[in-house]
Design brief:
By secondary structure, the protein is an alpha/beta fold. The protein has 3 domains: 235 residues, Rossmann fold, CATH 3.40.50.970; 170 residues, Rossmann fold (3-Layer(aba) Sandwich); 126 residues, Rossmann fold, CATH 3.40.50. The longest helix is centred in the middle third of the chain and has 23 residues. The chain is elongated.
Length: 665
């Protein structure tokens, strides 16, 4: 290793341990051990522009082992991104852009929010898929404007998490040749040596997945071998590459290197000094950055500017030759929608009795015909979720052609890959599976909400109405549990026309995910000439059917809105006037003004009843202290869906009984 490279690598190490020590919290071991591979990647291979971090054709780098966040922060600062030394000095503190784990919204250059192990690696698969899709759509003979790689740095914890097994399996199947994972193979986890719980041959596993597996035996010092491995990885366009780099966690620490003591805690003031001395640093200087090393790293600015300038020339020539595609490119890249994209969507009449999964499939396919960058798929359930984009072909990981992604039975990875598609930009991703399996996607749902990603999560078979499959497949607590996730909009439409509006909301939302919850069983399509317009969905809740001087209000979502309407008629026959409110999205309704909320659910009306085929916990928010929630606070059972609804009291008679009891009291 030459002297300048050694100085630069040690600068990463020392900056990282100084920040962790000052914060008195963090993970110093990974940045110390992985610094050589990160240095080689960022200085010799990564195509990026620190002065324009969002340049579309940049390579993506994801630190999946997000606990080692100081490695990324050091790289960003040293190579010239807008992350100051003061930011790093406030590592892990309130208001710092250098948070405990990388957060994509805090500072430029952070491509993904990582923390839960395996999420970032799976995000990288989505990014690589997005690159292939955009290349397949926009590259033309003689004009290449999409041609970049995706790199992820993964650790032992990533390798143990099940989500990476799913993501790596799919990546190998798709032959994503522009995807590279660098494995920080240090044989140490938080509790001790990985041999306590992890003794499999990881390389053979990835070979079985169809990846090119490369090995660097002396990753602490042999930067030439790391360089050769990266060159070989980029040369193989038919397989993703997995580079196993044998490293020493906490490299340079005289007493903690190679042990779990360097993993999750600061080295300690005396060990920091000893480490600095061991690496040829002044032990008494903190946050010292040698000018020679900084200048070396900052050559990335000039390289990046030149790379983008070269690309811009190619892009301008391509745009001149393909003006229509150029306009589409700009819309897709900025998450905007084409003019008139929502015109011509299906319109449903009262004669249409459809499961909302059926109407949802029709709406989604229609949108795909007008929004060419709508891309997504399901967990081997398209025949049931009905989310196939008709006529759009199956996604090919080599050519990028096709818009229907076959994720296989891999819900864990599916959600995180969709997030990666959204992080990349240029596509609007969706996923689909049965609602009960939202539990498998929940970590990705949460990460999408944290990172404000515009991902549409479609969940069908939404209640005990699933029927004969029984309680294992009947979601009961899932609907309310998703409502607990901040910044996730959950929409459970009542009929086909509410489905149309739900998808309009999902497509237009740019600062967070939307979950669309759909039925397996058929539901009536309401006569909107007699009832309020389905456009009320855009307020989250609206008065669907009113009564003069109502004595009570009945609230419902999804298939139970029809039950509420039936109850309203029965109550009227008894001389009781009830208002029916469709409340498909609590989050959107809660964001409306207090005046609007009161106009829908008047504070003066104390007789309030809700009906929803799920747990009742949470409904008091809208019912008040005196209202009655009708739902199902136990697991379901096997039997026809209609029978189950009746057996569990999710019918009009139950609503009538609850309303009459409240009105009479």
């Amino acid at each position: 290793m030459d002297q300048l490279s050694n100085l630069a690598i040690n600068t990463i190490r020392i900056l990282s341990i100084d920040a962790v020590q000052k914060a008195n919290a963090g993970h110093p071991g990974l940045p110390m051990g992985a610094a050589p591979m990160a240095y080689v990647l960022w200085q010799k291979h990564l195509k990026h522009n620190p002065r324009n971090p969002k340049w579309p054709d940049r390579d993506r780098f994801v630190l999946s082992a997000g606990h080692g966040s100081m490695l990324l922060y050091s790289l960003l600062h040293l190579t010239g991104y807008d992350l100051s030394l003061d930011d790093i000095k406030s590592f892990r503190q309130w208001g710092s852009r250098a948070a405990g784990h990388p957060e994509s919204l805090l500072a430029p250059g952070m491509e993904a929010t990582t923390g839960p192990l395996g999420q970032g690696a799976s995000n990288a698969v989505g990014m690589a898929m997005a690159e292939r899709f955009l290349a397949g759509r926009y590259n033309k003979p003689g004009h290449t404007i999409v041609d970049h790689s995706t790199y992820a740095l993964v650790g032992d914890g990533d390798m143990m998490e099940g989500i990476t097994h799913e993501a790596a399996s799919l990546a190998g199947h798709l032959r994503l040749g522009k995807l590279v994972w660098l494995y920080d193979d240090n044989k140490v986890s938080l509790d001790g040596p990985t041999s306590l719980a992890f003794t499999e041959d990881v390389g053979k596993r990835f070979e079985a997945y169809g990846w090119q597996v490369l090995r660097v035996e002396h990753g602490d010092t042999d930067i030439e071998a790391i360089d050769r491995a990266l060159i070989a990885a980029k040369a193989d366009s038919t397989r993703p590459s997995f580079i196993m780099v044998r490293t020493t966690i906490g490299f340079g620490s005289p007493h903690k290197a190679g042990s779990s003591e360097a993993h999750g805690s600061p080295l300690g003031a005396e060990e920091v000094k000893a480490t600095k001395k061991n690496l040829g640093w002044d032990p008494d200087k903190q946050f010292f950055l040698p000018d020679e090393a900084v200048n070396h790293f900052r050559t990335a600015v000039e390289r990046g500017a030149q790379a983008e300038a070269d690309w811009q020339k190619r892009f301008d020539a391509w745009a001149a030759a393909n003006p229509d595609l150029a306009r589409e490119w700009q819309l897709a890249l900025h998450g905007e929608l084409p003019s008139g994209w929502d015109s011509g969507l299906p319109a449903f009449s009262p004669k249409d009795e459809l499961a909302t999964r059926q109407s949802g499939g029709k709406v989604l396919a229609a949108i795909a015909g007008r929004v060419p960058w709508l891309v997504g798929g399901d967990a081997d359930l398209s025949c049931s979720t009905l989310t196939t984009l008709t006529g759009q072909g199956d996604f090919d990981g080599q050519t990028g052609l096709g818009r229907n992604i076959h994720f296989g039975v891999r819900e864990h990875a599916m959600g995180a890959i969709a997030n990666g598609l959204a992080y990349h930009a240029g596509v609007h991703p969706f996923t689909a599976t049965f609602f009960v399996f939202s539990d498998y996607e929940r970590p990705a749902l949460r990460m999408a909400a944290i990172s404000r990603l515009p991902v549409t999560f479609v969940f069908t078979h939404d209640s005990i109405g699933v029927g004969e499959d029984g309680p294992t497949h009947q979601p009961v607590e899932q609907l309310m549990s998703l409502r607990l996730i901040p910044n996730l909009w959950v929409i459970r439409p009542a009929d086909a026309n509410e489905v149309v509006e739900a998808y309009k909301i999902a497509m237009k939302r740019s600062n967070g995910p939307v979950a669309v919850i759909l039925t397996r069983q058929k539901t009536p399509t309401f006569d909107r000439s007699k009832l309020a317009s389905a456009e009320g969905v855009h307020q989250g809740g609206y008065v669907l059917s009113d009564a003069p001087a109502p004595q009570a209000v009945i609230m419902a979502t999804g298939s139970e809105v029809a039950v509420a309407l039936a109850a309203q008629e029965k109550l009227l026959a008894q001389g009781i006037r009830a208002r029916v409110v469709s409340l498909p999205s609590w989050e959107i309704f809660a964001a409306q003004s207090p005046e609007y909320q009161d106009s829908v659910i008047p504070r003066a009306l104390k007789a309030r009843v809700s009906i929803e085929a799920g747990v009742t916990l949470g409904w008091q928010r809208w019912l008040g202290s005196e209202g009655v929630a009708i739902g199902i606070d136990r697991f379901g059972a096997s039997g026809p869906g209609g029978v189950l609804m009746k057996k569990f009291g999710l019918d009009a008679d139950a609503v009538v009984h609850a309303v009459t009891s409240l009105v009479k009291t």
